[in-house]
Design goal:
Layout (H helix, E strand, L loop, with lengths): L1 H19 L4 H19 L13 H18 L7 H9 L1 H13 L15 H18 L5 H24 L24 H23 L2
Length: 215
């Protein structure tokens, strides 16, 4: 059941980001390809082999960066739907709840959850509040607020990304040796570093770019 919930979260992240980028077909096509490729590899156990050099998990990070960079270049500023980009961040709430369940199942360390050093759920909650406010008032958010909020979101996300990497069974592991981060090497949780995290980062960056470009 937990796996199905996470697959649904991944699909919703794709849908919200696709709508947020103005229904960019290249975003949709490449997203589907990335999910299929990483999903098949993870399902076969490809990333669970941590003895190879360089670690196979680096492929996930590399693909995420490449795809995010491409999306940044092809998405037009005048096509952005800020409400849908905000909806991407609301998904951080169920993501954090799934991570907590993975901790209870001893698949990730506690420091990767909201009872540890993961404060990302606060961004998800605030995104939900802002999203509801936009629906009710229809008022444009102040430019300074949008920029600051997105930068805080980037900071919180970066903290947990660093913790997750340093808690994984890799040569650079520094934390959680008794209960390492092994869930994100498996299907479907590989979608968190492979797709959801890059999309969340990009939703922040695109929103900031949009605000800065406006006079």
């Amino acid at each position: 059941m937990l796996s199905l919930i996470f697959i649904l979260i991944t699909i919703l992240s794709l849908v919200f980001f696709y709508l947020g980028t103005g229904r960019n077909r290249r975003v949709l096509f490449l997203s589907v390809i990335l999910l299929i490729v990483t999903g098949v590899l993870a399902y076969s156990g490809f990333f669970e082999n941590t003895e190879t050099k360089p670690p196979r998990f680096l492929l996930v990070i590399f693909l995420g960066i490449v795809v995010a960079t491409y999306f940044y270049k092809v998405v037009r500023k005048d096509c952005l739907n800020y409400s849908m980009l905000l909806a991407v961040h609301i998904l951080r709430i169920p993501v954090e709840l799934v991570l907590y369940q993975l901790f209870l199942r001893k698949l990730i360390p506690e420091l990767m959850t909201f009872t540890g050093y993961n404060f990302d759920i606060l961004v998800g909650i605030s995104a939900l509040i802002v999203f509801v406010n936009l629906l009710i008032t229809r008022n444009k958010l102040p430019k300074l607020f949008v920029i600051l909020w997105n930068n805080v979101g980037i900071l919180f996300l970066t903290i947990i990304v660093v913790i997750a990497i340093l808690s994984s069974p890799l040569p650079i592991q520094q934390f959680a040796f008794n209960q390492p981060n092994i869930a994100l090497l498996k299907f479907p949780y590989i979608y968190l570093p492979a797709y959801i995290v890059p999309v969340v980062y990009l939703s922040h960056v695109l929103s900031i770019r949009n605000e800065i470009s406006q006079k």
